[in-house]
Amino acid sequence: MRLLTLLLSLVAIGFSCFAQPTDWDSLRQQAKGQTVYFNAWGGDPAVNSYLDWVAGEMKQHYGVTLKVVRLADAADAVKRIQSEDSAGRKDNGSVDLLWVNGENFHTLKQAGLLKDGWAWELPNWRYVDQKKPVREDFSQPTDGAEAPWGSAQLMLIGNAQTGVKFPRSAPELLAFAKAHPGKLSYPRPPDFTGTAFIEQLLIVLTREPQALRLPPDPATFKQVTAPLWDYLDQLHPLLWRGGKTFPPTPARMDRMLADGELLMSVTFNPAHVDNLIDRKQLPHTARAFGFAQGMLGNVHFVTIPANARAQAGAQVVANFLMSPQAQIRKANPAIWGDTTILDSATLPAPLGEQLNAQKPAHLQAVPYLPEPHAAWVNALEKEWLQRYGAK
Amino acid sequence: MSLRFLAWFAVGCVFAPLLPGLLMMAKPALMPEIWQALWADNQWSGALLATLNSTVISVAGSLVLCLVLFCGLWPGARWRRYAAQLPLLLALPHVAFASGFLFLFADNGWLTRLCGISFHLDEYGMGLGILLALKESWFLLWIASTQLNYQTLSQQLTVARSLGYGPLQCRIRVLVPSLLPRLKWALLAVVAYSLSVVDVSIILGPNNPPTLAVLAWQWLNDADPQRVAMGMLTSLLLVGLLGCFIVLGWILWRVFRRAVGRFSGQRHLLNIQPLASSLGLVMTATCIAALAMLVIWSMAEGWFYPAILPDGWAFSGWQAAELSPLGTTLLLALASSFTGLLVIILWLEGGNPRFDLWLALPLFLPALPLVAGQYRMLLILQQDGGWPGVIWSHLLWVVPYMLLVARPAWQQIDPRLVITARTFGWSSWKIVCLVKLPLLARPLLAALAVGFSVSIAQYLPTLYAGAGRFTTVTTQTVALSSGGDPQQQAIQALLQMLLPFIMFIITLQVGRLLGRFRQGLR
């Protein structure tokens, strides 16, 4: 029996170029009855209820039991995968599918803890918008080790009713802070969104943008980042509580904006404003906006650890997450409002229009700026903490 | 099988993983480059200041509150009324109380909305310290109420009164000297908890920089091995800080003993009963107000600053809330508190009290390195992500707390009763079951309730040993506290509160029921 399986799999590998549908069918067969532990950040009720829906669909149509493990921070799961590996657990791992951002992906990929080359084989890959950076994550090639799930762009949120003119560039932001002292802030790095805000400023301020495509070089780091620190030194005294302390998360800033304590919040989800308005957390006059030059954008992914127990099930789930049906629902601001990674032009007729109809209403779109190399995150966080991490 | 063997076996099962945990922590201390990195990190001094501040406020505040209430109210009807509230106040989980406290006192909190008073709770760890002082004073009072021998002390008080000493004077001379040594263990636990608390600091503490414990926790979660080592070293330094507090406490105790021993013969008629009554009232009122905040937020629909009341009321938040974590939490807490009860009974009978300090170590050490050690062990044994593993990981904290509550009462068993039982030729087992356990029903019930609520409060062990698969109300609350939805946070905090409340009420009622049938327990 084992020999037969071996022969069959050899044949399957040999004919993989022609036999994709069969491959996929056997994967689906394999997945039936498996339990997939999907580790995802659980801080947002909208995301949680969307994942509950996904779990129901997986059970009903694919016979896969999806258990969502809600994390306060994706780094917890990364740490767990690392610990399992160093304890010698090469299979039967506790994480089957993981929602990652660039830095955590970078860490796991470098350590060889991810399953490679599966994402581009998924049937729904053909709908994916290749104009977005779906084959690289923070300037690092993904090698098919992660499947795109949604895309995100750093945006600022403001309330148009307060009668202020939104700043559309870094100098305008500084002028805005001078006009409204104590009413601006940003999440304290190493919060993901806070670091992204710093990166955004670095991208628009630095005189050497090419240096950001490569890992930071200790020799030129100071020179590349000097305009950023000059800018922040001017900005911080004008911030909320004199820049001596910072809000812990962007979600907390949303609340402070709603309470009128701040005039601006930041988000990594362009449709977040629509979602907040729907949930009555912000008034209808709230808008998402960005710098005219563009805002930092990226794609977020799901990945499968090399030691995952239910690898077939995890791939079936990842494929479902990329499906037009799941993406349309996810893009609906009333449900989650996460920007799709599919190209609506490649979809069959009604689906493409349905997807287009989900575009956020309260958004002033701006161009995508590519993210710096993943190693910049750590370097910038370290330097930021050294400079401003203690009042 | 001999009792002694069983006791050591049970305790060994619970505490064996402490060793890898301690070894892991000690390693970075031998690496000079980690010390250097720590020295170069500029968050460190601010974090140390915040930690020292919050810990001093917490420990001194809780002790002062405890002594004022005790000296003002004990003994009498007022004390009995106040003591009856204690289990409920104590059963309130830290995270839930902190959430309510924040809604009440934060920059945009209810008090600011009501009368415009606003203060920055997070600065220098003040808010954290005050919250812990309140919360831990109830813990100290509860311990005091279970440990004091009413008969002897009330006789001594009467003697002191008959000598003409005033009410406060008698209590300082009679009550405090016999109370403080009994609070020794509880005070140590308060210091250790205040030094190493992570979840409450995230909610109420400063964040630029955070407290040392949170900093260590962030570093331990970092992917960079050097940061992890810095986290270990910082955890170790927390232990060093604890040592400093112990020495300081010992010196203060000596000073107090000397001062109390000096009699000038002067009589002061000062009575602090009105002060104590009103203080007790304010404390309880704060607690009730914090709870009311949680209840109001859980049903609020659109509530923005500076509105004093929500725009509308709705149950939609409750309908959307998940209830399955409640079941998981209940099962985990029941299993670990009853297992813990068995372990401590075995240990109290068969173990050596000299080693109690070693068993209490988990309370004095930052939880994270211990959790990491436990988790490594579970991985090797392939037991992570299962019920036995999670229950076992909780026991490391459940058992010491239960022991802390039960040990002094066990020590106080009248040896003559045991000797009498021996003369009947009873075996040790029989003496335990027929003499000691019935005598100690109340302290043991108290221990059970404490163990139960300790298990519920566990965040890191549940997350690690459970491989993230066990969603309890606590992991849920902490996961939501990183978000910005006060409504869901309030709902989860209320759910987190529900279970220990029910447990404390049950143990209290069972204790009363037993008291009805046995005169000596009343």
From TrEMBL, chain A:
Transmembrane segments: none annotated. Residues 1-19 form the signal peptide. The lineage of its organism: Bacteria, Pseudomonadati, Pseudomonadota, Gammaproteobacteria, Enterobacterales. SUPFAM superfamilies: Periplasmic binding protein-like II. InterPro entries: SBP, YnjB. Gene3D superfamilies: Periplasmic binding protein-like II. It comes from Buttiauxella ferragutiae ATCC 51602. Keywords: Signal. The keyword Signal applies. This is Periplasmic substrate-binding component of an ABC superfamily transporter.
